[in-house]
Design brief:
globular, binds zinc ion, 22% strand
Length: 151
């Protein structure tokens, strides 16, 4: 699929060392447009509603902030740790800036976890981008379902 100049610029911004040290693409070398189409297909296939899942992840991030950087148990089901750093990061699509807040959610029973940041939630909600395969912040739909018990 042909990419718009905006999409090309976003992909350049996602390279390691531009916005974050690791970047957003992982090992994925495909055009960003193709990755987004695949993200949408994966989410649809798993029956994940983007707005619902983003709200759940935001709620868990907020709960985690009560731990002031230490892990806390939420609903007896998850161990949530939210860490905040100073400063902001721009979205690679250049449509906003986001605080540096990172959350790890671990499902105690299933022993599975996911990691995400304010910017990963924005990338998912606004741009339908799960981050490239191999990116530490990639939100794999199957993993999302397991950790959040969306079944
Ligand atoms: Zn954006």
């Amino acid at each position: 699929m042909k990419m718009t100049p905006n999409m090309r610029k976003a992909q350049e911004n996602m390279a390691p060392g531009v916005i974050t040290a690791d970047g957003f693409l992982g090992d994925d070398k495909r055009p960003l447009q193709d990755m987004i189409v695949e993200s949408e297909e994966l989410l649809r296939h798993e029956g994940i509603d983007i707005d619902t899942v983003v709200q759940t992840l935001k709620d868990l991030m907020e709960e985690g902030r009560n731990g002031l950087g230490e892990p806390i148990t939420v609903d007896g089901k998850w161990i949530v740790q939210t860490t905040e750093a100073r400063g902001h990061l721009p979205c690679p699509f250049e449509d906003g800036i986001y605080r540096k807040i990172t959350t790890v959610v671990r499902n105690i029973e299933k022993e599975e976890s996911i990691m995400y940041s304010t910017i990963s939630l924005h990338l998912l909600q606004k741009h339908h981008f799960l981050e490239g395969k191999g990116s530490p912040f990639r939100l794999e739909p199957v993993q999302l379902k397991k950790v959040l018990e969306l079944d």
